[in-house]
Amino acid sequence: MGADSAVTGVDVVYTHENPPDRWEAAVFLAGPTPRSAGDPSWRPEAVAALRERWDLANGRLVVFVPEHRHGVHDDYTGQIEWEERCLNLSDEVIFYVPRDLTTMPAFTTNVEWGMWHDSGRVVFGAPPEAPKNRYLLHYAEKFGVPTATDLPATIAAALDRIGSGASRTGGEREIPLLLWRDRALRRWYAGQRAAGNTLLGARVVFRFGTHWGLHVRMHVAAEDRVKDNEVVFGRPDISVAVLYRPAETLDETEIVLVREFRSPCANGFVHELPGGSGAGGPAEVALAEIAEETGLVVKPARLREHGPRQVNPTMSVHRAHLFSAEITGEEVARLRASGPHGVAADSERTYVEVVPFGRILRERLVDWACLGMITEALHRRT
């Protein structure tokens, strides 16, 4: 059985029913279900509030209701599997917990909250008199989850985050709005579509700040096969700068590196080029990163642009925008004499090292991607 189509633009999908093939937004009504048919559920009121508040101009809002349309409770395992599928399909999981220890103890809700509270796509509401919600509210505050003390305000908080939604169909529905609106993801997906590939499914496997991972299932048009064993990683693009002092030979040409502790590095410290991500255009970010990580202020006119490329296309969708600039002997001396740099608030501490290119090769000071960027800049220096 499918969803019921409503003139308000809100489609309700009950337990065991299949979701529609397209929508602009989807929400899941998580919270306690009455133990007996004689006790009223809070979900009809939630659906009515969603119908009232949802803007028809935004298209279709799907509401997943983990209750049987006809009040029948059967197939416990199937219920769990249906809920897991629809929770992952949802742009916002609306937790409303009017807990009553006799009629709606919300034991399952506690488990679901523990699984979803840090997902970035939940809101939490509960009447002030509802017992045993203090622990849940603690983690709502800790993870910045919007909270409310009544059902209308809880619904409003979820719809505020959804906004106008975004039209998605098929496998696209499995990418929640918080990732669908990510610039790196949109660029990656546009490239896949331009190549004729089809997203058949997706599952968010992690999200940490502006970084995310998405397990995808893709139909590869050029090979007419399905590939589903990879995770796509995403983060904001970076800008990277090769600062160099020319010499008589390529091996003697000096390159500005920054040494910094990075947890994934095998020995803790890594040598890399000045670079990073931030607000502004790629060149603006490059100049800011040079100043932050080396203390050197470079005028925009000195930068030469080499364009963007993916750094690790077998894993991450982000790109590095490469720039280079020739520096003077006096600037080299200042860099060598400078102390630690970086942004303390970001736990960043960098040490400047000016190193001949030949030494970089002999001692394997940088990774292959960094070496490629240095080679590109030196090859194009004249």
Spell out the key features of this protein:
NUDIX hydrolase, hydrolase activity, single chain, disordered N terminus, 18 strands, Nuc_deoxyri_tr2, 3 domains, NUDIX_hydrolase-like_dom_sf, 29% helix, hydrolase, elongated, six-stranded parallel sheet, 11 helices, Rossmann fold, 382 residues, seven-stranded mixed sheet, alpha/beta, Nucleoside Triphosphate Pyrophosphohydrolase
Structural summary, described in words:
The protein is of the alpha/beta class. It has three domains: 10-162, 3-Layer(aba) Sandwich (Rossmann fold); 182-234; 238-379, Nucleoside Triphosphate Pyrophosphohydrolase (Alpha-Beta Complex), CATH 3.90.79.10. The protein is built from eleven helices and 18 strands. It has helices spanning 43-53, 76-89, 107-116, 134-142, 151-162, 177-180, 183-194, 282-294, 329-337, 357-362, 368-379; strands spanning 10-14, 22-23, 25-30, 61-65, 92-96, 122-125, 147-148, 168-169, 198-208, 211-220, 225-234, 238-245, 254-261, 269-272, 275-276, 304-310, 319-326, 350-356. It is elongated and about 90 Å long. It starts with 9 loop residues before the first strand and ends with a helix.
